[in-house]
Amino acid sequence: MKQYQSTKICPGHNACAGCGELTAVQAAFRGLPEKVIITNATGCIEVTTTSYPESSWGVPWIHSLFENAAALASGVLAALKVKGDTKTRVVAIGGDGATYDIGLGLISGMWERGERILYICFDTEAYSNTGIQASGATPYGAATTTTPSGKVTSGAHTHKKDLLGIALAHGLKYVAQSTAGFPDDITNKVKKALTVDGPSYLQILSPCIPGWKIKNDEAGELGKLAVKTGLYPLLEYINGKLSASSINAKFTPAPVQDYLNKQGRFKNLKTADLEIIKKIAEQNVSKYRL
User: Fold this and answer.
1) What are the distances in angstroms from CA 30 to CA 90, 186, 237, 271?
2) DSSP string for residues in 75-120
3) By CB atoms within 10 Å of each CB, which of 11, 93, 105, 128 scores lowest?
4) Is the CB of residue 110 less than 8 Å from the CB of residue 12?
5) What is the Cα–Cα distance from 275 to 255, expressed in whole angstroms?
6) What SS3 state is found at 153?
7) Taking a C-beta distance cutoff of 8 angstroms, is the pair 231, 281 a contact?
8) Closest Cα to residue 237, out of 191, 179, 189?
């Protein structure tokens, strides 16, 4: 283990081959300082890195429950303050199930208290760890085990929750979005988030091999296509204002079919569904263009 002492997450985890989430995790953690404590919600990251009696973590790491990574982080921060430790940073991480749904209330409380904690959501757009059920992050038209597709329905008929908007409504000084297709962008945004004197939020689209029904070498490509179509742009808000966006004056969106056709979860889309998803991309282009 000595050779990995300076590595925040080490080889040996048992995530799926080509996992977009673990790619995003590695990119995010390259932006973290040496002195850091991680609190981790229940999810794929937790179960694939801590199969008893082994651990892939090279930094202090703690897991408690599905819903309380934010509250746990608040407690860790309070303990550090009692010790007079102002150098160790606290980072809470979770998937979209823990972030968009189960843990949202506790995340809101952490943000309301203005605590200097970075929360990172690794967004697979479903409950990937427990059977690919729909979450608040599941996009329109995506098939999951609780929104199955067939002759009558194509998949989810709900729309993805706007977590960036919720974070901004709490007055966070730094809110950003990225995808596993742009690892350097992830690393740079983590570094920026950690300079903020207060809470910060980073959301990262993390393609899931079994959940999205894609090949194990396609996660990075899908992360890029999500950005190129405008369905999941690279975004950065500083002090509540959009300061950086992949949708700029030179942006020409790729057809959404380039993104959708590679994923088995969208294989039964009807023409009307496709038009709705195209409209979502168009609205994003209008909303986030700089």
Assistant:
1) 15, 9, 21, 42
2) HHHHHHHHHT--S-EEEEEEEHIIIIIITHHHHHHHHHTT--EEEE
3) 11
4) no
5) 12
6) coil
7) yes
8) 189
> pLDDT tens-digit profile of 78-103?
999 999 999 999 999 999 999 999 99
Return all residues near 81 (Cβ < 8 A) that are at least 6 apart.
none
Q: Are 196 and 119 in contact (CB under 8 A)?
A: no
- Alpha-carbon distance of 290 to 287, in angstroms, equals 9
Sorted by sequence, the CB contacts under 8 Å of residue 165 that are 6+ apart come out as none
pLDDT above 90 coverage of the chain, percent: 92
Domains in the chain (CATH in brackets) are: 2-288 (3.40.50.970)
Q: Under a CB-based contact definition with an 8 Å cutoff, are residues 132 and 159 in contact? A: no
Q: What is the pLDDT of residues 205-227, one digit of tens each?
A: 999 999 999 999 999 999 999 99
Q: What is the pTM of this model?
A: 0.96
User: What does the alpha-carbon distance between residue 126 and residue 91 come to, in Å, rounded to a whole number?
Assistant: 22
Q: How many CA atoms lie within 13 A of 289 on its CB side?
A: 11
From residue 51, alpha-carbon distances to 5, 35, 56 in Å are 19, 24, 9
- As a residue count, the chain comes to 290
CA-based nearest residue to 44, from 117, 153, 150, 122: 122
